[in-house]
Amino acid sequence: MTLWEGRLGRDPAEALMAFSGSVGFDARLAADDLDGSCAHVRGLLKAGILNAEEGAVLLAALEHVKEELAQGSFVFAPGDEDIHTAVERRVTEIAGDVGAKLHTGRSRNDQVATDLRLYVRREMIAIGNKVIDLQEVMLRRAREVEDAYLPGYTHMQRAQPVLLAHHLLAHGWALSRDVDRLIDGLRRANISPLGAGALAGSSLPLDPDSVAKEMGFDARFENSLDAVSDRDFVAEALFVLALLGVHLSRLGEEVVLWSTQEFGFLHLADAFATGSSMLPQKKNPDIAELARAKAGRFIGHLTGLLATLKGLPLSYNRDLQEDKEPLFDACQQMELELDALGGLVSTASFDLARMQEAADGEDGAAVDLAEWLVERGMPFRQAHATVGSLVRDSIERHVPLAELVQAHPALGSEPLGLLLPGVAVTRRTTPGGAGPKPVADQMSRFQRRLTLDRERLAHMAAHLEPADQAVHAPS
Ligand code: ARG
Q1: 2, 191, 443, 475 — which has fewest CB within 10 A?
Q2: Is 332 in the same domain as 372?
Q3: CATH number for the domain harbouring residue 36
Q4: Is 295 strand, coil or helix?
Q5: Would you say the CB of residue 155 lies under 6 angstroms from ligand 1?
Q6: Ligand 1 nearest atom to the CA of residue 82, by list position
Q7: What is the predicted pLDDT for the residue at 7?
Q8: What is the pLDDT of residue 107?
């Protein structure tokens, strides 16, 4: 039996069902679909379209289906094209004749848009919290390593020493902007499409405002055509995940580099490393490599969806069904990635001696020498050239830089202390800079930011109707 049996005289071809059915993946929306249906039933009750008894029967049937899905005892039927069809079919089996009233004033078009917005809302909050979990690990590690430093790089060439805490928090702040984008996107996602019907609203006295409120949405749609046809909220979620994935890929790349024997800055805990099937000595950073690679997958999901949306005429088109798999996959992969990276960063050990040794080269203080000259009145360009030629001499003639500095008339022995190990990094004193003073300040600002972001997410979660039922996809 199909939902359109009155109009089309035959059962759909097997090939059509095989090609167009979505229940294999959209069963993931079951909890959201049930929440949406409960809100819809209450709306029909308020509108007087259902009487109290009919409403109670339908709500009980929906509750029953919710339990079946949560327990994994829900049986999908061959004709269940998608999760909406499956739920309605089962509700009708349980509720009897009144089941036929469930879909009054509603279309799968506004229904699926509603379900997906509920899903995005819930997932984005969960992912946001996982990002903050990772940031907390980074902050803890940053605190633990105190004033340890390493070379900071530009162009992958050693540039100036920076505190390790500063380096870790550089990744941490990028993630804060991801959390910010995620919360910002939620404001636009949290709009109810229910009541838009197939595309034009309804002749029945429905109240989209009250069902919106019922589901914890901030508002109802403004335009029914727009409500059933746009998936910009999915594209935004995929963009946020893609950029978050890009940020994590940069962290991953550094873990890969730092754990090479050549760098030797980082040793992975055994539980977060892998071995080789052939080479007995190997210890590999697979999590970090996968974090690097998954960014490509997230970007692919975003570009795939944008390509699907491009040029689609109003309003609902079946093309829109292709929004789901990329979204589900991106959310699932991101959760796994955040957990794995959190474990990796939490348990890895830093070789602080090796990092510091790499940062202690005399030329790491070259700009400090130049600034020492600036403080004594030399124009910076001239100071830059003076120190630059000393560095060149030191390399070409294999003479320690300190010796050349001491012999130079404008420098002498006074600035020699700048070249001592560990000194240059302490001279980065400006706000947001890489030295101990600004980094201590940065750490408390970062901590405050994490607390605030947690509260923002908790606040959003608090006035939403949680769809908390675990739902099992059909096998
Ligand atoms: N499975 C469909 C989707 O994901 C649900 C909406 C179907 N609507 C329709 N008019 N065929 O988009």
Answers
A1: 475
A2: no
A3: 1.10.275.10
A4: helix
A5: no
A6: 1
A7: 77
A8: 98
